[in-house]
Amino acid sequence: MISQLNSAAIRSAYASNFGEVKEGATPKGAAVISKQGDLSKIEKLREAIESGNYKVDIGALSEKIAKDLLQ
């Protein structure tokens, strides 16, 4: 029961903070697109995912998740 309440509180806190960025700030981890229409990086990712060549670095992903949870 307590764990369900805690997880519900965490979910609602996360949802309320999701997408909030201070004015003039760039969200952490966001890619900056220099000009509108610059989709080359996205297209390369899409092609790698569709062809099955995209690999996930589990170590780096888990480290990032852990850091985000500790903040």
Structure, described:
The chain is mostly helical and 71 residues long. The protein contains 3 helices and no strands. The protein is extended and about 40 Å long. The two termini are 25 Å apart.
Biggest sheet overview:
none
| Alpha-carbon Rg, integer | 17 Å
Q: Hey, roughly how much beta strand do the residues contain?
A: under 5%
Element order, helices and strands? HHH
- The unreliable regions are none
Task: State the distance separating the first and last CA atoms.
Answer: 25 Å
Helix content: 55-70%
Shape: extended
- Average pLDDT score: 75
Number of strands: 0
SSE map:
Blueprint: H1 2-17, H2 40-51, H3 58-70
Question: How is this structure best summarized?
Answer:
The chain is mostly helical and 71 residues long. Helices cover 58% and strands 0% of the residues.
